[in-house]
Amino acid sequence: MDRAENALLEGLNPPQREAVTYRGPALLIVAGAGSGKTRVLTHRIASLLHSREAYPSQILAITFTNKAAGEMRERVEQIVGENARGMWISTFHSACVRILRREAENFGFTKAFTIYDSGDSRALIKRLVRDHDGDAFGFTPAGVQSRISKLKNELADAESYARQANMSDPAERLFVEIFADYQRGLQKANAFDFDDLIAQTVYLFRAFPKVADVYRRRFRHILVDEYQDTNHAQYALIHELTRPVGAGESDPYSVGGMMIFEPEKDPLLEGASLTVVGDSDQSIYAFRGADIRNISEFERDFPGAKVVLLEQNYRSTQNILSAANAVIGHNFDRKDKKLWTDSGDGEKIVGFTGYSQHDEAQFIADEIERLRKADVDYAEIAVFYRTNSQSRALEEIFIRAAVPYKIMGGTKFYERAEIKDALAYLIAVANPADEMAVRRILNKPRRGIGDVTETAIARYAADQQITFRDALANASALGVGPKIQAAIAHLDAVLVEATEKMLPASGELAPPTAVAEGLQLLLSKSGYLDALRASKDPQDEARVENLDELVAVAREFARNNPDGTVIDFLGEVALVADADDLDDATGSVSLMTMHTAKGLEYDTVFLTGVEEDLIPHRISAGEPGGPQEERRLFYVGVTRARQRLYLTLAMTRAQFGEVSVAMPSRFLQEIPAPLIDWRQSPGDVNSRGGMQSRALNARPGRGGQSGGWGSRGGSNRYGGDLVPKGTSIDKIANRIPAKVRDNGDMELATGDRIRHDDFGEGRVDAVTGEGAKRVAHVRFDDGATKKLLIKIAPITKL
DNA sequence: TTTATAACGCTTTTT
DNA sequence: GCGTTATAAA
Question: Where, in this chain's numbering, is ATP bound (predicted)?
Answer without folding.
Answer: 31-38
